[in-house]
Amino acid sequence: MAVNYRHGLSILELIVYLPSLFISLYMGFRHGFQRNAGWILLIIFSLARIVGSCCYLATIAHPETIDLYIAWGVCTSIGLAPLISTCVGLLSRVNDSIQRKTGRGLLPAFFRLIGLLTLAGMVLCIVGSSMSSSLQGITNSIEAKVGDVLYVIAWACLCVLLLVVGSKYASIEDGEHRLLLAVGISVPLLFVRLIYSLLSVFTHNPTFNMLTGNVTVFLVMAVLEEIVIVGICLGVGMTL
User: Fold this and answer.
1) Is the pTM of this model over 0.90?
2) What is the CATH number of domain 5-239?
3) What is the pLDDT of residues 145-200, one digit of tens each?
4) What is the spatial distance between Cα 168 and Cα 171, in angstroms, rounded to a whole number?
5) Are 42 and 233 in contact (CB under 8 A)?
6) In 59-107, where does DSSP find H-type helix?
C-alpha cells in the first residue's frame, strides 16, 4: 500500500507527540506524577497517539491485517479521557490554590467524580474497539456509544467546574490564573473533538467514519484539536 493522506496524519502525530511525551515526562518529574496534576495523563495520551500512529503506519506494509486497525482504534478511543482529565487536574490545582488562600475550595470529590466518569468511558471504548471483528465494529459498538455518552457527561461537568472555580477568580493565588485560561481555551476544543466522536459512533454518515471517512474532516475536528490542547497544557505547565 502506498502512503496516503491518512498515513500523513499518523506521521504528523509522531512529529508532535514524541516531543510531547518527553516534555510531559519532564513536567511530571518537575511537578510530580500525581494523577490530579495532569502530567501523567498527558504521558498516557502521548503514548497512545505514538503507538496508534505506528500501528496505522504499519498498515502500509500489512494492509490486510485487521489487528493493526483494531490497535489503532483502541489507541484513538483513549483520546478524550486523558484530555478531559488533564483539564480537571488543572482545575484541581487551581482549587487547591483557592483552598490555601481562603479555605473555601471545592470538595476534591467533585473532581474525582469526573475522573471516574472519564475512566469508565475510556474502558468502555477500549472494550468496544478491542472486541471488534470488523472495521465497522471498531467505531460503532454499543460499548463505544455508552462510553461517548459518559464523555459528554464528563465534559458538561467540566464546564460546570470551570464556571464555579472561575467565579472564585479573586481567591486564586498569583501565578495560578493561567491554568484557568488554559482550561477555558481547551473546553470548546474538547467540544469539537467530542462532536466528531459522537458523529462517528452514532451516525452512519461515511464522512465521519474515523477509518474510512473524510480525512480532512478528521484532521480539522479531531487531530488538530488534540494537538492544540496538548500544546496549551504543556505550554502553561512550562511557565509554572
Assistant:
1) yes
2) 1.20.1070.10
3) 899 999 999 999 999 999 999 998 888 888 888 999 999 999 999 999 999 999 98
4) 5
5) yes
6) 66-77, 80-102
